[in-house]
Write a structure and sequence with these properties.
The chain is an alpha+beta fold. The protein is 35% helix and 19% strand. The chain has 25 helices and 24 strands. The strands form six sheets. Strands 12, 13, 14, 15, 16, 17 and 18 form a seven-stranded antiparallel sheet that branches. Strands 2-11-10-3-9 form a five-stranded mixed sheet. Strands 5-4-7-8 form a four-stranded antiparallel sheet. Helix 17 packs across helix 18. The longest helix has 24 residues. 32% of the residues are buried. The N terminus is likely disordered. Bound molecules: adenosine monophosphate.
Length: 712
């Protein structure tokens, strides 16, 4: 086994180094640290390594082994400690010296031209515009002091980000030190310099990571952007280091920090300073040049090894940028031109049928996985029987799939010329694929439906709906756990969640086995968390309980309307079908559905058992400690993540409702305020278009503290 004692590159192995005397070890440790520092600089700062990665790792391993064998020589600033040593600091909030903004979007050429027109008006003439690819990754802010990397932070909510310094230190192309010559451009060398860019994961590495996750039974990432953000925000920096992350840098937090005139020069300087800068840039003088850059970028999109989702167009001159300034969300001197929906062809492997919680049967296209607009698409709904026939898609067909950004993918149709002879026309099932009972199609309905009360697929969907965020929000109770609980007979209806014990959950199999071939169970720590999540769900507001029961035609908003008139289960049980129809927002069908549901003995028994378990069965009546209803008459819409307040949208909605406000899911002319957290979605753009006032997290907090809507 002699070869085991030697590293592949001839360096002594861990066992060998233990035999050194203390003095020899100390000398070797010093020499190794110097050598590693030198190579780190060459590798990270100069992008010009002189030794292979394997040799570098080997030096590091030897140093680590020596420090372990001779702990008296271990120091906190050793290269071996630098990554691990940051663990405690993970994700401490970092307030950005200058706010990190988002970008306003132009969804098509017309909007892009309109933006350029507004720029022309603002300055009297169209100034040179710097066009860059919009990298679909995660924003990062890197701070250098005296030319050395001292801090890395995510964008967070724009004002405060997360400390990911230790993790970014492991990203290979981030220079630990700025190149000396580049420092001459610093306007204030004594001040820290914050540079910004994007961390991304190349498409190939994303696919490899997902294959690995699949093989190990771990959750896969939806797209390269999530994979980048997820890999960056690891508690253990060693994991980040293993992931293939890379960066493109493109901005500075404060234009005045560098003695440069504009964006174009900044990009050149970033390159000189040692950063990776995306090579696809253009300094455009005319509108037509900008449009041409956007078109050529769109053409290039699929052949690039990383994801892009548009082009960022920036007024080049810093002085002109400063003159234009910012809105509360984005710079006025830049715009993101978003690429149109992407279409790809792929194989339709099968059409399966999914049974929903109310028994609706939905045909689903099972596709050969394909990366479209940043995410892997392997399934797409085909809505209903008529839709399948209208689109004439057959198993074996090459189909065209369209997707835009985070939007749900859609099958557009088949490429008929590529249809194989044996392509199968789909036939709607006559029986439910889950329970085998005959299915029906009611008059005037497009959907097939399984009306069996004992259908296991419906039961599973009902359980999933009950634990979902919009209903009882039982954190951690995912599909896999529920499946196992059902399979083992511990849970068959929603009331059964409340009779589970910690042991029931702890002993539940995860379906995986360890190296010894033993089944891995959930274990007590997870079980304890689940038990407290179940306990917490008992005090969810009554309208969530009603919505959670999954009655047909009763969604979140109908449940709220219902509870306003019938604030307890007792009251609801006594209401006649006609009385229910009187409730605002409840139609004939919904009234019939509620009435029938509450008269089905199995459902009544579930409700009784829920009540006995302590699940709230009445709305909290306005008592003396009820909050003043200062927001009554106002309608709110929420978008984005309330990162700073660490609040889910459901919690925020509950707070608004507790003060009499209404919460709606879409922006319209009737919306009083949009509350926008981090990464707001299209609701934000709609609100701006409709001139609906937008509250940021700070303003929302003020609203909660004072109970008064702000005067904007
Ligand atoms: P969004 O995430 O849609 O709000 O778009 C804004 C984000 O685009 C910024 O926060 C950056 O992280 C990202 N981005 C990607 N590439 C660029 C670029 N070349 N210039 C500026 N921002 C970019």
């Amino acid at each position: 086994m002699a070869s085991d004692l030697k590293g592949g590159d001839g360096l002594p192995s861990h066992e060998a180094v233990r035999e050194l005397t203390a003095a020899e070890a100390e000398a070797r440790i010093q020499a190794l640290r110097q050598e590693i520092e030198h190579n780190t600089y060459l590798y990270y700062a100069l992008d010009a390594p002189e030794i292979s990665d394997a040799a570098y790792d080997s030096l590091m391993r030897e140093l680590k082994a020596l420090e372990e064998a001779h702990p008296q020589f271990a120091t906190d600033d050793s290269p071996t400690k630098r990554v691990g040593g940051y663990i405690e600091k993970q994700f401490t909030p970092i307030r950005h010296a200058e706010r990190m903004y988002s970008l306003d979007n132009a969804m098509d050429e017309e909007e892009l031209r309109a933006w350029m027109e507004s720029v022309r008006k603002l300055y009297g003439t169209l100034p040179p515009l710097c066009c860059e690819l919009k990298i679909d990754g995660s924003s990062i802010a890197l701070t250098y002091r005296d030319g050395l990397l001292v801090q890395a932070a995510t964008r967070g909510d724009g004002t405060t980000g997360e400390d990911v310094t230790a993790n970014m230190m492991g990203v290979a192309d981030v220079p630990r030190a700025l190149k000396k010559d580049a420092l001459d451009a610093l306007a204030h060398p004594e001040r820290p310099l914050e540079l910004r860019g994007e961390v991304y994961m190349p498409k190939g590495s994303f696919e490899a990571l997902n294959l690995e996750a699949q093989a190990e039974g771990r959750k896969q990432f939806a797209n390269p952007r999530n994979a980048a953000a997820g890999s960056l925000r690891q508690k253990d920096p060693a994991i980040t280091r293993e992931r293939d992350l890379a960066t493109f840098m493109y901005s500075v937090s404060d234009n005045a920090a560098l003695k440069l005139k504009g964006q174009w020069e900044l990009l050149q300087w970033l390159k000189e300073a040692g950063f990776h800068v995306n090579p696809d840039v253009a300094l455009c003088q005319t509108e037509e040049e900008v449009i041409a850059f956007c078109s050529s970028s769109l053409e290039k999109r699929n052949s690039l090894p990383y994801e892009i989702d548009g082009v960022v167009v920036k007024v080049n001159d810093f002085a002109l940028q400063d003159a234009a300034g910012f809105t509360s969300r984005a710079p006025k001197w830049a715009i993101a031109f978003k690429f149109p929906p992407e279409e790809k062809t792929t194989l339709l492997r099968d059409i399966t049928v999914q049974v929903g919680r109310t028994g609706v049967l939905t045909p689903v296209a099972e596709l050969e996985p394909v990366l479209i607009a940043g995410s892997v698409v392997s399934r797409a709904t085909l809505h209903n029987e008529d839709e399948v026939h209208r689109k004439d898609v057959r198993v074996g067909d090459t189909v065209i799939v369209r997707k835009a950004g985070d939007v749900i993918p859609e099958v557009l149709g088949a490429v008929i010329t590529l249809r194989p002879e044996d392509a199968l026309m789909w036939e709607a099932p006559k029986t439910c694929p889950s329970c085998g009972m005959p299915v029906i199609r009611e008059e005037g309905e497009a959907q097939l439906r399984c009306v069996s009360i004992d259908c296991p697929a419906q039961a599973l969907e009902r359980l999933l709906h009950w634990v979902s965020r919009e209903a009882m929000d039982i954190d951690g109770m995912g599909e896999e756990i529920i499946r196992r609980l059902v399979e083992t007979g511990r849970v068959s209806d929603v009331a059964d969640f409340y009779s589970l014990s910690e042991d029931d959950l702890a002993n539940l199999s995860t379906g995986r086995v360890n190296k010894e071939g033993e089944t891995i169970t959930l274990g007590h720590p997870t079980a304890r968390k689940l038990m407290s999540a179940i306990e917490a769900s008992k005090s969810r507001p009554f309208d969530r309980v009603i919505g959670g029961l999954g009655m047909r035609h009763i969604g979140k908003n109908t449940a709220t309307d219902l509870v306003e008139v019938y604030p307890s289960m007792d009251a609801l049980m006594q209401a006649s079908e006609e009385e229910l129809q009187e409730v605002h927002g409840i139609g004939e069908r919904a009234a019939a559905s509620i009435w029938a549901f509450l008269r089905t003995p199995d459902n009544v028994s579930v409700i009784e058992r829920l009540q006995a378990a302590g699940v709230s069965m009445a709305a909290v009546s306005p008592s003396e400690d009820a909050l003043p209803q200062t927001l009554s008459g106002l309608t709110f819409v929420l978008t984005g993540t309330l990162t700073e307040l660490r609040m889910s949208r459901e919690e925020a909605a509950d707070q608004l409702k507790a003060r009499g406000g209404k919460v709606s899911s879409s922006v319209s002319g009737k919306t009083s305020y949009l509350i926008a957290g981090d990464n707001p979605g299209s609701k934000y753009d709609k609100a701006v278009k409709l001139r609906v006032p937008v509250l940021d997290e700070g303003q929302f907090k003020a609203l909660m503290d004072t109970g008064e809507p702000p005067v904007l």
